[in-house]
Design brief:
Length: 177
């Protein structure tokens, strides 16, 4: 089975992975890429979100065969080729989005897919596209980070953030954007 994983061509012999195997298990158990998380196993939570030809896909319900001949990107391949953070990753840090962190790789992949097709999404568009579950309640930060990443991407790959958000002291609620 041939695919392009995080920009690198990969030929997975059939003895290593059954084409019917969920993509999530191929990534985690066969390829040892553990950044893509198992959450619910039914495609509802989004912790396993990857990008397939740029589109967000739930890897727990996508068979490995669906990736054949296609570009597959995991959280391990989201950073830029020079090692710098993708605009979404930088914005996540700037806006202090993560709390527990378990769902973050899936959220980042879904956000990157959204921004690729809609660089300046509204809150309603963000809510419609980001259906991943997060129990930490950082939706205001998440929206602000996605908007900031979109602006950074629109200005070009070397653009820096316009302004750093104020630090939020530990244990306090973030200001709503």
């Amino acid at each position: 089975m041939k695919l392009v994983l995080n920009g690198q061509p990969l030929d997975l012999p059939p003895e290593r992975a059954d084409p019917a195997m969920p993509l999530l298990w191929a990534l985690r158990d066969v390829l040892n890429l553990t950044g893509t998380k198992f959450g619910c196993g039914i495609g509802a939570c989004g912790a396993c979100t990857v990008r397939l030809d740029g589109e967000a896909r739930r890897a727990c319900v996508t068979p490995l065969s669906a990736a054949e001949g296609r570009r597959l990107q995991t959280i391990e391949g989201l950073a830029n080729a020079d090692g710098s953070l993708h605009a979404v990753q930088a914005a996540w840090l700037d806006h202090q989005v993560p709390q527990c962190g378990y769902c973050q790789s899936g959220l980042l992949m879904a956000a990157a897919a959204l921004l690729e097709r809609k660089p300046r999404p509204s809150d309603a568009e963000i809510d419609a596209a980001i259906t991943n579950l997060c129990r930490c309640g950082t939706t205001p930060r998440l929206r602000a980070a996605i908007r900031a990443a979109g602006e950074r991407l629109a200005r070009g790959p070397s653009a820096k953030p316009e302004a750093q958000p104020a630090a939020v002291p530990r244990g306090s609620a973030p200001a709503r954007p």
